[in-house]
Amino acid sequence: MPVKMVAIYGASTVLWILFAVSQAFKIEISPEYKTLAQIGDSMLLTCSTTDCESPSFSWRTQIDSPLNGKVKTEGAKSVLTMDPVSFENEHSYLCTATCNSGKLERGIQVDIYSFPKDPEIQFSGPLEVGKPVMVKCLAPDVYPIDRLEIELFKGDRLMKTQDFVQEVAKKSLETKSLEVTFTPVIEDIGKSLVCRAKLHIDQTDSMPKERETVEELQIYTSPKNTEISVHPSTRLHEGAAVTMTCSSEGLPAPEIFWSKKSDNGVLQLLSGNATLTLIAMRIEDSGIYVCEGVNLVGKDKTEVELIVQEKPFTVDISPGSQVAAQVGDSVVLTCAAVGCDSPSFSWRTQTDSPLNGEVRDEGATSTLTLSPVSVEDEHSYLCTVTCQRRKVEKTIQVEVYSFPEDPEIEISGPLVHGRPVTVNCTVPNVYPFDHLEIELLKGETTLLNKFLREEIGTKSLETKSLEMTFIPTAEDTGKALVCLAKLHSSQLESEPKQRQSTQTLYVNVAPKEPTIWVSPSPVPEEGSPVNLTCSSDGFPAPKILWSRQLKNGELQPLSQNTTLSFMATKMEDSGIYVCEGINEAGISKKSVELIIQGSSKDIQLTVFPSKSVKEGDTVIISCTCGSVPEIWIILKKKAKTGDLVLKSVNGSYTIRKAQLQDAGVYECESKTEVGSQLRSLTLDVKGKENNKDYFSPELLALYFASSLVIPAIGMIIYFARKANMKGSYSLVEAQKSKV
Q: Which CATH number fits domain 120-217: 3.40.50.300, 2.60.40.10, 3.40.50.720, 3.40.605.10?
């Protein structure tokens, strides 16, 4: 390429780059277009460029006024700082940025205002109910004044609103106010006044700048209804004390001031407290006392007259006009003179009986001590006091009583349900016993009440009692037996002196007839277990005693457990067992018989020649129990009309010629001393064929043989067993097996 062409090409490239740079160069200003600044604050206007490496900046106002600010440029940014903002800063500011041959400019409007403080509320005077007062609401140092609006509220009610649109705007700070006159009422107490100032700076801004001040109304009322209360009275004796209390209504609460009016009417200030107490009053303390209630808006006063009289001479006797003293205690009677510097004393009884006490005088007091008190000290005592030429006498009645111990309860014996018992309630060492009342209660029920007022009283200590008989029941258990003694005083006390003793009743109930359970059966087989269980009700819970009744009727104790157990019964365990329920109220008993059965294989019921025979045959029915001693055997034939006992010999019964009516069920019952067993079989008798008598010589021979052999065998076995058990046998004893 030629050099010239290269030069042309290079120049065009540079121009294109410069053109591109100028086209990409931009300027921005912050805040944009328009801003608002308060006088005295600080404000920054920032001008910046983009896409320019080394811009230059300049600032000016649109009317070429001084900037009244400092410019600081750094790189692509220039800042105009106005600190503090003043009226001279209210302009349109222009920022010009130059980049190479390009130049851009941006403008911003700066509006200023002043609204630095909350409004102030001022009153023309204190707010007194019923008196008009002017309230002023001020908005200080405001600009521009023509944009200001002020509102005044009392509670939620708008009292007045005012704007200053018609005012001529000036380049200065101004203070504007709103004034309202109103008359406070009681209902205004607790309400608030609200002064609200609004500055509408920009008409396009729907929310104006706003400040408000709230002040609670302090409502005052002048003092009124000032009153004085005096205790104990406005008429006093020398040396006495008086308390006077003053109250006054008002807002704020009035201060109280006490004064005394002198003879010439001048008030002498005494106190600034609501209560004025004067002690040791003198005659010269008589006069008119003034109470005045004072607050910010007024005052109110009232007065009272006190009259102090000469101190009287009086006598006091203690512990009172009457006193009750218990025998053995000490009692001190005191006689005191009031209003006399040097009194003299004398004591005597109204009946001129001996004092039986010690008299001691000390200053304005005299005492008579009775120690120990006895029934002879029951008198009216007179104390005579002499002061110069005056004499005063006081009487005190001393009543003597004796009631030193709680009553005693005695019961004649243990309490048993249904058995009468006597209760004695004794009150020892009582005086005067004719004032004594004794009451016996069971639970809340009165059993007996006795008042001894009809008995002749004596000057001595006596023991009195109340006695009664009642029948306790089981329901009485847990109830309280109460002996209540009351000693009534004829004059001294409305309520009598009381003493009582309490005893909780526990009524014994004899055991009821026991209940016995035998498990599994009272007739068990030999070798099996048996439990005999016994229970009985009573109070206290009965103890259980198991015994065995011997042949002579005596009882052999076995166990004190409720259950008597046999792990494996034996024949000799058969017998009568007695259960006794025993407690303090009695004994009850019940018996049960335990019968131990031998093994069932020992008893045999047989028929010869067989269970099915023909009419006319001889039949032998035998019942044997070879291993059981002392047995009774009963053979029966069952029938609808009742069992028929057969006359057997040694347990055998022979039917010589069997008839059809001999057919049926035969039963063998074997009995011993300890029980019985049953066996049964059914005999079938068939009719003869062709009405011919049939007789077999062999059968006849067998019959005679069996009729002799079988009984003989049974007897031999029986006597052999008897001999084995007893070492011998007896024909007399053997006869027991016959029926």
A: 2.60.40.10
The reported pTM is: 0.40
Higher pLDDT: 626 or 155? It is 155
pLDDT tens per residue, range 388-434: 777 899 999 988 888 889 999 999 888 888 889 999 999 998 988 88
pLDDT at 490: 64
Angle, alpha carbons 180-181-183 (nearest 5°): 135
User: DSSP character for 310?
Assistant: P
Strand partners, 678: 669
**Nearest partner of 606 among 668, 539, 676, 528, judged by Cα:** 668
Both structure tokens of 597: 């059965």
Hey, CA dihedral for 601, 607, 608, 610, is it positive or negative?
negative
Q: Are 113 and 209 in contact (CB under 8 A)?
A: yes
| Residue, of 627 and 96, whose pLDDT is higher | 96
Q: Which residues neighbour 723 within 8 Å (Cβ) at sequence distance 6 or greater?
A: 729
| Residue 142: alpha-carbon gap to chain centroid | 69
Third-level CATH fold of 515-594:
Immunoglobulin-like (2.60.40)
CATH topology of domain 314-401: Immunoglobulin-like (2.60.40)
Contacts of 603 by beta carbon, 8 Å cutoff, 6+ apart: 623, 624, 625, 628, 668, 670, 677, 679
Residue 630: predicted pLDDT? 56
**pLDDT one-digit tens code per residue, 312-346:** 788 999 988 888 888 999 999 999 998 787 889 99
Query: What residue has token string 């204190």?
Result: 126
